[in-house]
Amino acid sequence: MLSSTRKRFRVLGVMLFMLALYIVLTYAFYSGLTRHMLGAGDFFPRWMGARALFLRGENPYSDAVTQEIQRAMYGRLARPDEDQVAFAYPLYAAFIIAPFVGLAYAQAQALWMALLVLLVVGGALLLARWYRFVWTPLSFAMLVVGVLLFYPTVRGVFLGQYALVSFFLLVLAFVAIEARFDFLGGALVALATIKPQPVVFFLLTLMFWAFYQRRWRIVCGAAITLGILFAGAMLWVPTWLGDFVQAVRHYAGYARVGPPAQTLVEVFAPRAWSLALTWVLGGGLLVWMVHTVWRARALAWDQWPPVLGIVAIVTTWTAVRIGTPDQVLLLIPWIYWLSSWVKQKRYGPALLATLMGIALPWAIFLMTLQGNAEDIRVTIVLPLLALVLYVWQKLWPPVCKGNYSALHPGCCVCHGEERSLRRSNLRASQFSPINGRLLRRKTARHDMAE
Hey, which residues does 370 pair with through a beta bridge? Predict the structure, then answer.
């Protein structure tokens, strides 16, 4: 009884602390930035579209609303070669910012930016907790500071990007599934589709795993939530789905930015070969992801962090119209690797990877900056670095020296419980660098203890 009361007070204390921090961050953004200079260029069209929808009952995909957004942003109609700043998101994305539509934009922007900071840091801390991160004051401070300085975080916050919300919802879904709140986990994954392109591979992967594992509540949670979102959107704008598809087609016409795999090929390969090489690179990455997910289909959920990391890497390489804020997904494998290195006391690789992950994108951004526009080459930096780190982990895997509490990349024994590994009914050699004999010996000791 006492323990339960303490937990409730602890949860209440955390909630009050987060509320106070949110208020402080909002005031800081408002007084120091948004009151003097409006920004968050990715948030503004969604906010304007949501205002038109909820306050005036207009279709945010309409030409009239798009022209209103253009005049508010540019002071004129957009030229054909400019970003048309249209509402090119699913209509239910407007539901997320409905509480902000009655406010002045300076206030709404400050509230939104403060919320994004809390969501991305909160998502990173939840990931670290799931990965059994070794918590010390120094490691906590380094993780929080590293996440705040992470290039996709900074750019995402100042653009007001939905990608940071999708990242948090995905992480919350992972944690909910781990805690066996399956319906909630499926619902959160569905809700994360407010920005579809960074989420679609995760949605498909989790539905496949849930089907195989017969975790039907995950599937039901996702299906019911998507149904509610689609139906709710149709109540406001019956034609929204067709309008959204048309808006995406128009967006592809004026925002000619392909996936980073295409950018990499176009930067380094001859122009005549670029299309073929893009298909080879992108197709190879997708085959790698599908193969990994298929092999991991029988693994228990606590064995899935390496697989989710691969899905994140492939998403940032191959998803269409994906920008640097969407690459916040790379925190999924990055924090996993850091947790592994810290547990093994391999502080050198941890520090080196952290510094490179923070400094390299900023260095390329500053070296290629022209005016106030980000160079497209910046989009390939973090996916390439993540892929190099993954290959390095595979070529020089850590050696398990009997420390079964350590969290080694791809190591089923060290990450999860032996009983969940037995439930997965997989050979130890499939995903683990530990040989089968060591696994059987450890399992036998576990059985004797029970």
Answer: 373
Q: Residue 376 and residue 323: Cα distance in Å, rounded?
A: 9
pLDDT above 90: percentage of residues in the chain: 56
The rounded distance, in Å, linking the Cα atoms of 66 and 49 is: 8
Instruction: Tell me the C-alpha to C-alpha distance, in Å, between residue 369 and each of 10, 39, 81, 159, 378.
Output: 46, 19, 20, 17, 10
Query: What angle do helix axes 137-149 and 151-159 make, rounded to 10 degrees?
Result: 60
**Distance (Å, rounded) from C-alpha 43 to C-alpha 39?**
8
Alpha carbon 225 to chain centroid, angstroms: 19
What distance in Å separates the CA atoms of residue 203 and residue 280, rounded to the nearest whole number? 24
The span from the CA of 162 to the CA of 248, in Å, is 16
Angle of CA points 289, 375, 40, to nearest 5°: 90
Is residue 131 helix, strand or coil? Answer: coil
Determine the average pLDDT of the residues in 305-331: 92
Per-residue pLDDT tens over the stretch 160-213: 999 999 999 999 999 999 999 999 999 999 999 999 999 999 999 999 999 999
Supply 113's token pair.
Answer: 């930016």
- The mean per-residue pLDDT over the stretch 12-33 comes to 90
From CA 344, how far away is CA 68, in angstroms rounded? 56
Conformational region of residue 151, where left means phi above 0, alpha means psi within -120 to 50, and beta covers everything else: alpha
CA distance 97 to 410: 39
pLDDT per position as a tens digit, 265-298:
888 877 778 788 889 999 999 999 999 999 999 9
∠ CA 86-90-92, nearest 5°, is: 120
Nearby residues of 314 by Cβ (< 8 Å), 6 or more positions away: 201, 285, 286, 288, 289
- Split at pLDDT 50, 70, 90, the class of 448 is very low
Backbone angles phi, psi at 26, to 5 degrees: -60, -45
Q: Residue 79's Cα: distance from chain center in Å?
A: 32
Per this entry, what is the length of the chain?
450
- Answer whether 397's CB lies under 8 Å from 280's CB: no
Alpha carbon distances (Å) from 392 to 38, 288, 344, 401: 43, 16, 16, 20
Q: How far apart are CA 34 and CA 105, in angstroms?
A: 8
Are 206 and 221 a contacting pair, CB within 8 Å?
no
